[in-house]
Amino acid sequence: MGNFDPCRYLRGDLQVLPYPNQNPDFAFEQAVIGMAIVSLDGTLLKANTALSDLLGYTQQALTAGAQQAESIRMLLNCIVQNVKASQDHQQSINPFEHTYHHPEKHKLYLNIHTGIELDTEKNPKSYWVQLEDRTLHRQLMEQLEQKEQKLIERKHTFLQLLEILPLSVLITKKGIVQYVNPAALKMVKATHPRDVLGISTDVVVDVSSHNDLIKRRMRYEKDGVIGSVNYLIRCLDGQEKIVSGCTIMVHYEGDTAALGIFKDITEQRMEEDRVMQSEKLTTAGQLAAGIAHEIRNPLTSINGFVKLLRSSESSNELYFEIIESELKRIELIVNELLVLSKPQGVHASGPIEVLPILEQIITLMKVQAALKNIEIIPHYPDVPISVQGEVNQLKQVFINLLKNAMEAMNQGGTITVDILLSGHNVQIVVQDEGIGMTPEQIQSLGQPFFTTKDTGTGLGLMITKNIIHNHGGTMNVESVPDHGTTFTIQLPAL
Predict the structure, then answer these.
(1) Strand partners, 34
(2) Dihedral sign, Cα of residue 151, residue 154, residue 160, residue 162
(3) What is the per-residue pLDDT for 2?
(4) What is the C-alpha to C-alpha distance for residues 188 and 238, in angstroms, rounded to an integer?
């Protein structure tokens, strides 16, 4: 073929072919992509096997009757029109794409390279055509474009959602703010995103909460978990706020980022503090009123008898006994108030076995119970039971419960003490056969100076409830008038 280089042709970068003086049939027929020779008027003169397989017709049919098929005519017409358009504009012949309708009713996307074969006079003789099937590539590109479009739409929807979300949203990468929504701008008192974008979260979060930031980052590096948190933040105008929120890891702008959603709870905290303070003042008021009432009665008695003694010429031993009794009552009230005023926090001394403590208390109370014709019957499990807490406080709880049970049993009877394991909890059940209580009385239990006994302050049960609460437990009361009362204490087991 003279200067014709079949390999160079197969690469598709040949635009004008010299007149071949050697037989190119071998390269033409063995090419793995479709090859054709087309006349200047658009007649298919020759096709190789690869082209036959590609277009769905035999080689003989392609050079004969198949050219009458509309899809083949359109293909040949496009080839001729593309070459002529390039010649008219004196341009090189550029590759082009053509959609071919296969006889088996599916579309092929063909990439077509065209070259001109010249005769001995350097005049165009025919066209060499190379056809490559790009259908799979085109389909993949379309799928990729569709996915990219969906991702763009999702991102747009996602950002739209964040923009209208009433909660504050910040997206950070390595602690640097990448995105803020309008609610977050309002929260930190910023007027424009540029006031916040690019700054470190260490600037927004107050120094007092930096340890929380560090712990969250360390927890994420170790366990991949961030979780929820409360921060004290400092707004751009210097105002302090308390925020509560949670953080999740997302993919943002081609990288992993932390998306935090936060709520300003400053007002909520202030309201909670106001309510707590109000409750404390209310309790203090009730306590003060109760103290005044309880102490006034014995003081009135003492005052009256002192006046009698002054007016009496002889000493009266009965008066002194009454005065002594009333003074002891005042001392009892003051002592219980002192116990109540002490901090009841649990100073854990390690695991505490419940059974030995109860045995000690029951042994201590048995003499007093026997004097009242009362029998205390314990039911213990076979295995040791331990709780976390403070020994003396738990002893005080058991003493108060047994003391209350005995004081409710004027006619004698039996007190049973059962210890049960219920899941991860220990239950201590104290049941008496006393006078019992009404639902209204049960409802008032634990209030300062409410008592069902003739002599009592109601502070003992209030102290008991506080101790149980501080040990993470609960107390339940069931009672039937004239049949007895059951106190059920539940504490976390170890």
Answers:
(1) 131
(2) negative
(3) 39
(4) 9
Asked if 183 and 169 touch (Cβ cutoff 8 Å), the reply is yes
Q: CA distances (Å), 418 to each of 103, 345, 354, 378, 403, in order?
A: 90, 27, 12, 6, 16
User: How far is it, in rounded angstroms, from Cα 263 to Cα 29?
Assistant: 74
* Helix/strand/coil for 109: strand
Tens-place pLDDT, residues 46-58: 999 999 999 999 9
User: Residue 258 and residue 246: Cα distance in Å, rounded?
Assistant: 10
What is the average per-residue pLDDT within 419-430? 89
Cβ atoms of 114 and 129 within 8 Å: the answer is yes
Cα distances (Å, whole numbers) of residue 233 to 181, 214, 239, 269, 468 = 17, 15, 8, 14, 36
Q: Smallest Cα–Cα separation from 485: which of 472, 476, 493?
A: 476
CA-based radius of gyration for the chain: 48
Residue 25 exposed, middle or buried by CB count within 10 Å (0-12, 13-18, 19+): exposed
At 68, which amino acid appears?
Q
Say what angle helices 317-341 and 266-311 make with each other, to 10 degrees: 170
Q: What is the pTM of this model?
A: 0.39
Bridging pattern class, strands 107-118 and 16-17 = parallel
Query: How far apart are the C-alpha atoms of 173 and 199, rounded to whole Å?
Result: 11
Whether 374 and 414 have beta carbons less than 8 Å apart is answered as yes
Joined together, the tokens standing for residue 178 give: 């990448």
312 alpha-carbon distance from chain centroid? 80
Q: Summarize the confidence of residues 233-238 as an average pLDDT.
A: 90
Strand partners, 116: 16, 127
Q: What is the DSSP string of 439-478?
A: HHHHHHTTSTT--SSSS--SHHHHHHHHHHHHTT-EEEEE
CB 308 within 8 A of CB 319: yes
Q: Count CB-CB contacts under 10 A for residue 432.
A: 26
Tokens of 20: 């071949």
CA distance 174 to 206: 18
Helix 354-371 × helix 391-407 angle, to 10°: 30
Q: How far apart are CA 442 and CA 452, in angstroms?
A: 10
pLDDT at 338 over 90: no
